[in-house]
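Z., the sequence and structure:
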Amino acid sequence: MIETLTGVRSRALGNTRDVFVYLPPGHDPAAGPYPVVVLQDGQHVFAGAGLSPSWRVDETLDDLIGRGLLPPLVAVGVSNAGDRRGDEYSHVAPYPRDPRGVCRGERYEEFLIDELLPVIRERYAVTADPAATAVMGSSMGGLVSYHLAFRRPEVFGLAAVLSPFLVFADPLTLAETSVHRRFGTRGPRRIWMDVGGMEGLIMVGPVRELAEHLLGLGYAPDDELRFLHEPSAPHHEDAWAARAGSALLHLFGTAGPPVRLSAGDGSTATGQALDVAPIAERADGCRYSALGAELTWRPAAPLKSVGHALLEGVEPGLAEVVARVGELAVTTRVTVVEGGPDALLDVTVVVPDGTPDDSPVYFSGLATTEIAPGVHHGAWRLPRGVGLNGTVGRGWRCDGLDADGVPIGTPLRHDADRHVRVRVESWSDPARDDPHAGS
């Protein structure tokens, strides 16, 4: 069951928002206190309330609680602030794409902890024990969840950080600006962190580097910190819905050893690191990248270890890598190619007549430049292996369409120099296609 708290006012922020509360089957205040998870972007969390697409967390919880894999728990979806979302989810630096952006993360933190949680605890009999209180979010919601858990671990002892927006890459120059803080001491008790391999400018590298940093703080891999790299996953609610169950099982479930390992072949370049952690799966269905796996490889010359299940190309060649976790083992092949860790992407986009001359045109989030009437071009050197969604757009919900009126978007894995040419036949109408319209 989902209850909607309409127009919840915040003194700290001076605004209102809806809050969606999932109650487990048979919820009874007398049976409390219940564990609780607080989720960002709450209007996209539950299938039974809010907007589509969603994470469908209510369906996931019904399933896992019903099968006895999770204890009954309360999930609180806190709606974002719309066009001021970036402000509230920023602690360290204003959202770089918004010239009006300011940091209101501390105010949002005050709202959650001092204003909202007391109401939730009183009304729904949820715990105040940090060991059973989680914060969870994706993208910028992942960023703020990470900061909340490390700034206030006495409140949020558990954290799920999905596809976090840690580094802003300028869509034209690719210049990077960090928007997160690296804490020097441990924070929450347990952390889930993940990223998809087809998320474009939300690249795997910064997320994997943060996971390595947390392991350096003493978090035990595959125990206190569980990480998942899903190579084919895009930056989208459907992908987060698919991973939410594993995150919740890590935070609230019963730990156990993996029952199977799997892995695919990979390639890297000289001087480039490659994540070779096998995918482990527990009996309860929790899937994660086994960062603690023991690695061996033959021949030794092409590769060297540079972190937890991270191998760097040393010289061109082919190596057979064996990953072991307990009694389980899996073998993969890694090819090291000659050349540096990046490759050229050259893109030409032909747009239809009537496209405004001053309208920016993006390919997979990368900004192109008009070089002739109706022709836009861009060239960038991107890390080998980065996944791009292949979309063309002019901003929020204004997507490039093909001759059949279907949004353009052929995903590509950028593993070598390539030239791409795309023709846009028409543009979608952002007002018509905006899922927030009228909400």
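The helical segments are 57-66, 85-88, 105-124, 140-151, 204-216, 237-252, 430-433. Confidence is low (pLDDT under 50) at residues 435-439.

Let me know what you think.
H.
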